[in-house]
Write a structure and sequence with these properties.
mainly alpha, three-stranded antiparallel sheet, two-stranded antiparallel ribbon, 8% strand
């Protein structure tokens, strides 16, 4: 199995790594951690980590498919894993585990460096000036961008903007959940 992977499977991997390190994660935080994992992988390999796309939502980048898989936890701590449902039989089955050593290394690094941050701090980190999220939001104010999608090319080009901001105090009050921008 090679990238891009199912984003829900990478989320499961992030959650497993967080559990291993004693870190609790909400859906809001998970979305930012998935985005940072995808960005770091994309920067290192030139290949996207997950299939699909990220959108610029009010509180930062969100992968709509993975958000939907974990939204049942609301603002609470995620205590389960995403699965897949056969649309014909409606039978629920486990997602294939991601075992790629490069992905395991990146997810471990992201949880080790960012997993301790609050959801608000992760949101702030995703909002820094010059970041892919900020660039899409700024462009979205002037031009049409369906769903405010954040292209992989933009993530690869601008991802290094995030590295300078790690460790700064959060500017936003703690928020519980994300939502798309209202048109």
């Amino acid at each position: 199995m090679f990238p891009p992977f199912d984003p829900r499977a990478v989320c499961n991997l992030l959650l497993d790594e967080a559990d291993h390190r004693g870190v609790q994660i909400s859906n809001l935080a998970l979305q930012k951690l998935l985005y940072f994992t995808h960005g770091l992988f994309l920067q290192r390999t030139g290949e996207p980590l997950v299939s699909g796309y990220f959108e610029a939502w009010r509180y930062g980048p969100v992968h709509p498919g993975s958000y939907a898989a974990f939204k049942k936890y609301g603002a609470g701590i995620i205590c389960g894993r995403a699965s897949k449902i056969n649309p014909l039989t409606e039978q629920e089955t486990q997602l294939p585990a991601v075992r790629d050593k490069n992905v395991l290394a990146v997810t471990g690094q992201i949880i080790a460096t960012l997993g301790h941050m609050t959801a608000g701090q992760l949101v702030d980190l995703s909002h820094v000036a010059g970041s892919p999220w900020a660039a899409v939001v700024e462009c979205g104010e002037a031009t049409a961008n369906f769903g405010l999608r954040i292209p992989n090319e933009l993530i690869r080009e601008k991802f290094n903007q995030h590295k300078m901001q790690i460790g700064h105090a959060p500017r936003l009050s703690e928020i519980a959940d994300d939502e798309p921008f209202n048109p």
